[in-house]
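[recover] target loaded
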């Protein structure tokens, strides 16, 4: 039998490697930004078109590469960071595998321009599908520019798996944040389709977070700082009252490298135990510095997962540090019942000494002396007729000035009419509620059991779709515009669906990069629901769920209906139960909710007879 094992061609091996390293356009952004940081750049510019499908370009002012290094950087496992196997446990840079550029070049059209400061002229390389088309001298500035065009052009199946432009752009923004937050000493700029999304100047860590997520983020941050022999922890956590349903603003960095760690995330969540509700997540920006020999970051191609030598100790230290910071800044409650928090010294003044007050007293002052300027105005010189003048017109005239109680008028609240007109006779109850969850209604063949939450979702869903079509939504105006706490990227999502929200009944007083406020909300929405509903909507638009959506309007209608539907546990009056049942069976598809779950079940008399063996 002939030999059947053979070596793969280079272009096939590169495409297999690309499947691990390059999963979507954001993967390319991550690799190129990390290479720019490793080059020692002080300014990095990211240019993206069509969410990375058409162009991803990273320009830096780093050290650049020689002609030979530029060519070798496109080969697999060619790196300047590793010499021996021991170097894998003493890594201080971002990239070290030497796979990124070779993998990207295998599935895209790439053009690289680079020049060192000591060289008079740089080099330009064009490569398509691992094949170098040209390498020639070029006049370029010091640094490196890598342009990746037509990603996945030779892997159409992978390109078909890409999500919509909004989803892919969101992933790119996430990767940009992960790199930019770890390096506040570097200036970043991010352009998408010729418009600037982010301009982040060189600054400190707190200001970098504020610049990336909006000025309102500043008031949410609580500093965290702890230095031990095992780990040094710095950064910020969000105040519990600003916790959200989404996990968007949760960042762990180990030695300035972004990582994903459910284990450490559990440590932070346990520190917030008792401070936030179930189902919401606090934000955090935490930077851990450990000995490079105590971690292994070579366990995943994307280098976002690492192993700690002593993860149990780091878990305990992290949990205690976050809890201590929350208590230190009066965010977490303390157990001193005799302590009056109003007497606490502000944190910024805790080391300052109090100033001795200077009080001047005139020891010769006598208020009863005739020489005193206050004496002439005092009661001692007041004439009797001056006092009697106060009672002029109040002489008693018998009982003429008595006020009859019947003549008095009292201010009272105006009695408003009820939602339903009073009936002369008590209405016949046709429905009743079980466990504040189900509504039971009798029918000719038996009875139906209706899930009140799913039924209301179906009613709201069809109502919103109708409003999107005929644009006749009714809003309830707020007495004062309500400011909202949204990051810049979240505000951009709301701006993209603003027309649908206005048709649903939302009225925006302002909707800009860092300023979102509402002047009106849909009828029936409570004031305390606004932020929850919009946060859920943003999350759904980001993730493009529900999966069975047909259009943007359908997605928004489902999200709003899911957030505003009557919740399980709410007690409904008899009239509200009847109204809900009538509205449900007036829908086009009353049997299923917007999320393809049944809204009611039918029980026939025959089914009941079988239960009783009749």
């Amino acid at each position: 039998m002939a030999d059947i094992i053979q070596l793969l061609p280079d272009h096939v091996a590169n495409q297999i490697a690309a499947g691990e390293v390059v999963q979507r356009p954001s993967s390319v952004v991550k690799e190129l930004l990390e290479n720019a940081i490793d080059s020692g750049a002080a300014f990095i510019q990211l240019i993206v078109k069509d969410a990375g499908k058409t162009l991803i370009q990273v320009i830096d002012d780093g050290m650049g590469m020689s002609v030979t290094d530029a060519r070798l950087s496109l080969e697999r496992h060619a790196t300047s960071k590793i010499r021996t196997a021991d170097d894998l446990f003493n890594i201080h840079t971002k990239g070290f595998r030497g796979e990124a550029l070779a993998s990207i070049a295998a599935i895209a059209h790439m053009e690289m321009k680079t020049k060192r400061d000591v060289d008079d002229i740089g080099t330009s390389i064009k490569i398509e599908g691992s094949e170098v088309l040209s390498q020639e001298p070029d006049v370029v500035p010091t640094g490196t520019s890598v342009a990746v065009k037509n990603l996945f052009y030779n892997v159409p199946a992978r390109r078909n798996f890409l999500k919509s432009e909004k989803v892919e752009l969101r992933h790119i923004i996430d990767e940009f944040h992960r790199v930019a937050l770890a390096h506040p000493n570097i200036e970043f700029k991010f352009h998408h389709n010729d418009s600037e999304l982010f301009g982040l100047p060189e600054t400190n860590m707190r200001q970098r977070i504020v610049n990336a997520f909006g000025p309102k983020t500043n008031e949410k941050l609580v500093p965290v700082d702890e230095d031990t022999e095992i780990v040094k922890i710095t950064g910020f956590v969000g105040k519990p009252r600003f916790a959200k349903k989404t996990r968007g603003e949760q960042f762990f960095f180990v030695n300035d490298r972004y990582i994903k760690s459910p284990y450490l995330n559990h440590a932070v969540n346990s520190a917030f135990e008792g401070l936030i509700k179930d189902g919401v997540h606090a934000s955090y920006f935490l930077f851990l510095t450990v000995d490079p020999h105590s971690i292994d970051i070579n366990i995943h191609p994307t280098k976002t997962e690492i192993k700690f030598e002593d993860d149990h100790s780091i878990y305990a230290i992290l949990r205690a540090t976050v809890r201590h910071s929350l208590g230190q800044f009066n965010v977490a409650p303390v157990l001193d019942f005799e302590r009056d928090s109003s007497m606490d010294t502000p944190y910024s003044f805790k080391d300052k000494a109090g100033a001795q007050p200077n009080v001047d007293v005139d020891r010769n002052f006598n208020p009863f002396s005739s020489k005193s300027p206050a004496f002439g105005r005092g009661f001692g010189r007041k004439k009797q007729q001056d006092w009697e003048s106060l009672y002029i017109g109040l002489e008693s005239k018998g009982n003429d000035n008595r006020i009859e109680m019947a003549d008095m008028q009292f201010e009272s609240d105006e009695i408003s009419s009820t939602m339903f007109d009073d009936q002369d006779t008590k209405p016949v109850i046709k429905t009743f509620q079980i466990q504040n969850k189900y509504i039971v209604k009798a029918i000719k063949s038996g009875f139906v059991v209706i899930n009140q939450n799913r039924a209301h979702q179906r009613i709201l869903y069809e109502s919103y779709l109708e409003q999107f079509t005929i644009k006749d939504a009714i809003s309830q105006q707020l007495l004062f515009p309500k400011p909202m706490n949204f990051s810049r990227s979240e505000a951009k999502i709301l701006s993209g669906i603003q027309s649908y929200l206005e048709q649903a009944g939302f009225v925006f007083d302002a909707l800009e990069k860092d300023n979102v406020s509402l002047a009106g909300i849909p009828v029936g929405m409570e004031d305390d629901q606004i932020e929850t509903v919009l946060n859920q909507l943003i999350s759904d638009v980001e993730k493009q769920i529900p999966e069975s959506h047909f259009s943007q309007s359908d997605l928004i209608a489902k999200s709003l209906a899911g957030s505003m539907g009557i919740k399980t546990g709410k007690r409904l009056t008899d009239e509200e139960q009847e109204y809900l049942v009538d509205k449900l069976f007036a829908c086009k598809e009353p049997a299923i909710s917007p999320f393809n779950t049944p809204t009611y079940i039918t029980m026939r008399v025959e089914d009941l007879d079988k239960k009783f063996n009749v």
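[recover] notes: The chain has three domains: 10-202, 214-328, 431-603.
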